[in-house]
Structure formats: C-alpha cells, structure tokens
Design brief:
Low-confidence stretches: none
Strand order of the largest sheet: 5-4-1-8-9-10-11-12-13
Oligomer: single chain
Largest sheet: 9 strands, mixed
Number of helices: 11
Distance between the termini: 36 Å
Shape: globular
Structural class: alpha/beta
Order of helices and strands: EEEHEHEEEHHEHEHEHHEEEHHH
C-alpha cells in the first residue's frame, strides 16, 4: 500500500541537559536537570507525521545495541512502518547531546554513528516504498548520496530540510520540489550573509531554488514562502516555549502531511506553524508533537 509520507533520515538517542545558560568555550555550568529521549531529525519527523494521522514509513539505520532496539520499538509503537529501518552491526546508534537554557534556546552536538552508514544501495532496497509515497521527506543527518538516491526514486513530492546546514550538490537541489530551510541554512546555501528581511530571504531563496517552493522558517518571526511568482509571509503563534528541540522537525513533518493530503502550500504552512507551536510547549524532541485533533483545536482558539 502506498504511504502518505516516507522519511529518509537519522535516528538518535537524545541526551538533554537543562541549564541556566549555555556554557562558553572551556566553561562548566551546573545544570538544573537532564533526561534521555528518542530523537534524530528523521525519526522526529516520522513520529510527527504519524501522530498527525499520515501513514508513514522510515528509511534509516540503527546500531546493534539497546538504544537501537528501543528506538525501533518506539517508532513501531507510533505506527511508523519500520520495515526499511536496518541495523548496522559495527556502528552504534546515533547520539545527540542537547543543552537547553532558561530562555528555551538550545545547542546540539550530534554523533552520527549508524546514521552515517545509510548507503544508496540500502535506500535502493526500498525503491517501491519510496517511489509510491505521496511525499518523501529528507534531511542532512545521513549521507548526501543516500538522499540523492531517494530523490531519484521519488515520484511524488520531494521535500528537503537542509539541516544541519551544509552545502548541497546542484544535482540534488534540482530534484527538490519543496525546500524547508531556516534562516541560517538558507544563507549558507545561497553563499551570503545571514538574511535579515523578507527581501533578502526572497533573493536568497530564488538563488538557491529558482523553480521550486522554498519555505523559510524564522522561529518566532514566523515563516516566508517563496514561489516563482509570489512571496507569502506567515506570523508565528505566541506560546510559552519550554524546549525548541524537535519544533523544526514537527514543522517539516506537518508541511509534508498537508501536502500529502492535497493541501495548498498556504494550508500546509498554516498546519505546520500550529503543530510547531504546540511542539515547543513540552520537554523533549518528540514529547510535545501533537495529534491532528490537537492542531485543529489549537487553530480554532
């Protein structure tokens, strides 16, 4: 059966530490608490899509360890199809160390582990799963060659979240239908200073993806959608943020879900903005990811 959304990406064990402020180089800061949780941009996006009601599959790699087994069971319990999640017998499951300050700003260091062994040939083993999906969603926490293979196999809408920020081969960008960068990721791709206003965002987006749709997330400043013939701005929802980890992943997933059900880009961005706003109100990358009922209730307030 064709799935609504197939995610190609990373899966990590998250180690989160709350701190009064982010430490400076060489400094130790006494934290105020810590917890373990599931993460990885790919797994986060798959969980978010599934919670929003989309039939969702995940293509990725874990290690042959307890973390990998727990991550796999966690995805399965969220109704994510894990048939394309394979095990690397040599590398450990990916790890992310996250520091969150009192203003809900964070820093993240991710060690890829098994994520780094996702190869084009492994992706190709699941060609039909990818080709039949309405939307394929990918990020950059797995090798670019694997993402390019997925883009080549996709016959639906191919969405790329270029995170963490990195240069992207032109051959991959040419296959992207919807690009979902934040401000700094867009600036890096465009090879210019960080964009400040809508005019600069628009110029950068059209330089990077002249023929597609670019949805630029701006955190508390909302989002800007740049298309070939129009530019649209969307305000962010005001909420009391606790932990921003996973909010961007929730936005990307909700956008993909909207597109998979035939929403216009405006409708999909509205859904994504609401879902991301809800996601920041709980600790942990996946803890606050909402259901469709929760998003609809939020939008009706």
């Amino acid at each position: 059966m064709a799935l609504d959304v197939v995610v190609i990406g990373s899966i990590n064990q998250d180690v989160s530490v709350m701190s009064p402020r982010l430490p400076r180089p060489g400094e130790t800061v006494l934290g105020t608490g810590h917890f373990l949780g599931p993460g990885g941009k790919g797994a986060n996006q798959a969980v978010a899509a599934a919670r929003l009601g989309a039939s969702t599959g995940f293509v990725g790699r874990v290690g042959d360890d307890d973390w990998g087994r727990n991550m796999t069971e966690g995805l399965d319990s969220e109704s994510v199809d894990v048939s394309a999640l394979s095990t690397d017998p040599e590398r450990p499951t990916g790890l992310a160390v996250i520091t969150i300050d009192a203003q809900a700003e964070n820093t993240i260091v991710a060690s890829p582990g098994a994520n780094g062994s996702l190869t084009p040939s492994l992706v190709r083993e699941h060609a039909s799963l990818i080709a039949e999906a309405k939307v394929v969603l990918a990020q950059l926490e797995v090798p670019t060659e694997a993402i390019l293979e997925a883009a080549s196999l996709s016959s639906g809408v191919f969405c790329l979240n270029p995170a963490p920020a990195a240069a992207i081969p032109k051959v991959l960008l040419e296959r992207v239908d919807v690009l979902i960068p934040n401000r700094s990721e867009l600036s890096l791709l465009a090879g210019r200073e960080e964009t400040v206003d809508t005019t600069e965002v628009t110029e950068a987006a059209r330089a990077v993806l002249p023929d597609g749709v670019t949805v630029v997330t701006l955190g508390g400043d909302g989002a800007v959608v740049v298309e070939a013939d129009r530019v649209s701005e969307y305000e962010a929802h005001e909420v009391e943020a606790i932990d921003p980890t996973g909010a961007g992943d929730t936005f990307c997933a909700a956008l993909a879900v909207g597109l998979s059900r035939g929403d216009t880009i405006a409708e999909a961005v509205s859904l994504a903005s609401a879902a991301a706003a809800i996601a920041v109100t709980a600790q942990g990358a996946q803890a606050g990811m909402p259901s469709m009922d929760e998003v609809e209730a939020f939008l009706e307030r």
